[in-house]
């Protein structure tokens, strides 16, 4: 886990059914509203999840890989 925000992002994606329409190109204010963190911290968190092969980063969002969709 790269930073303290990574588990929070993972839990939010899980609660959303495994997909969130946010990625590194998303509006910083929208990220702050949804995830309660800066875009910088969000990007670090999704980067850590990607490197851990927990998520895939798609053109319009992030998706949990099937084996990680459940806690």
Task: Give average pLDDT, whole number.
Answer: 90
Strand content: 5-15%
The largest beta-sheet arranges its strands as 1-3-2
Number of strands: 3
The low-confidence parts are none
- Largest sheet descriptor: 3 strands, antiparallel
List the helices and strands and how they pair.
Elements lengths: L5 H10 L3 E2 L7 H8 L3 H13 L3 E4 L2 E4 L7
Antiparallel strand pairs: 1-3, 2-3
Helix pairs in contact: 1-3
Task: Give a structural overview.
It is a single chain. The chain has 71 residues and is an alpha+beta fold. The protein has helices spanning 6-15, 28-35, 39-51; strands at 19-20, 55-58, 61-64. A hairpin with a 2-residue loop joins strand 2 (55-58) and strand 3 (61-64). Helix 1 (6-15) crosses helix 3 (39-51). The relative contact order is 0.24.
Concise overview:
Strands 1-3-2 form a 3-stranded antiparallel sheet.
Main attributes?
71 residues
């Amino acid at each position: 886990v790269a930073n303290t925000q990574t588990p929070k992002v993972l839990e939010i994606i899980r609660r959303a059914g495994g997909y969130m329409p946010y990625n590194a190109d998303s509006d910083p204010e929208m990220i702050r509203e949804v995830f309660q963190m800066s875009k910088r911290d969000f990007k670090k968190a999704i980067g850590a999840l990607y490197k851990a092969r927990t998520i895939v980063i798609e053109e319009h969002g992030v998706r949990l890989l099937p084996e990680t969709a459940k806690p």
